[in-house]
C-alpha cells in the first residue's frame, strides 16, 4: 500500500536525500520548503504522515504543527538541528508524535515513519482488539475511541498513552515508566510531557476521564470500575 508523505524542509539537499529513501519504499512525496507551502499542500492532498522541520521561512514548524493539529491527527515527526529538551517538550505539547535531531540516518527516519504509521493505523496483532469500560470503547484494529457511540478524536500519542494505561489497568504507573513506555527510552524530554498529555486526554474523555486517577507522589492509574 502506498503512503503519502509531506516533507517540510528548507534545505534542498536534505529534501533530496530523504525523498530518495522514501521513494525507494514506494512512498509518494510532497515537498515544501516553507511553512506556507506546507499548509497549502496539506490542504490539497491526502497526507498520511508529515516530517516537519522547525526552522522554516515564513511560518516556523511550531506554527505549522499547531495549524495541522486544528483539523487533523495525522502523525507528525519534528525534524530539527536543535536538541534542547525544551524544544522537544514544546513539540510534543503542540501535538508532534516523534522528534528527530539532525544529523540523522535516513534509513532510521524511514523506519521511524513506518513504525509511527503502523501504530496510527492500529495494526496490532495478537491482542484483544475491542476494549470497553462503561461508555468508553477502544477498538485497536480501527484505532478508534468512542464514548457512548460518539467518536473521540485522539492524536496518535494520546491514543498510545490511553492504550498503555488501559493495558495496565489497576496498576499505578510512574511518570518515568509512562514516558519510557509511550515515548521510548531514547526520549530525553521532561516528565511534564506525561502530565500535559494526561490533561489533554482527560479533557477529551469527558465523564470517563475519572477513570484516569492521579496517585499523589506516585503517578497515574486507570480504573476499569468506577
UniProtKB/TrEMBL annotation:
Could you tell me where this protein is found in the cell?
Answer: Cytoplasm
One Gene Ontology CC term in the entry? cytosol
Q: Which residues carry this modification: 4-aspartylphosphate?
A: 53
Response regulatory domain location: 4-117
Q: Which Pfam families match?
A: Response_reg, Trans_reg_C
User: Which processes are annotated in GO (biological process)?
Assistant: regulation of DNA-templated transcription
- Taking the record's annotation, the residue ranges forming a coiled coil are none
The Swiss-Prot or TrEMBL record marks DNA binding at: 128-224
Quick check: keyword Transcription in the entry? yes
Per the record's keyword annotation, is Transcription included, yes or no? yes
GO MF terms here are: phosphorelay response regulator activity; transcription cis-regulatory region binding
The signal peptide, as residue positions, is none
Coarse class of the primary localization is cytoplasm
Family matches, as InterPro entries? CheY-like_superfamily, OmpR/PhoB-type_DNA-bd, Sig_transdc_resp-reg_C-effctor, Sig_transdc_resp-reg_receiver, WalR-like, WH-like_DNA-bd_sf
Its domain of life reads Bacteria
Q: Which UniProt keywords apply?
A: DNA-binding, Phosphoprotein, Transcription, Transcription regulation, Two-component regulatory system
Tell me which residues make up the OmpR/PhoB-type domain.
128-224
| Protein name, UniProt field | Response regulator transcription factor
Query: What species is given as this protein's source?
Result: Peribacillus psychrosaccharolyticus
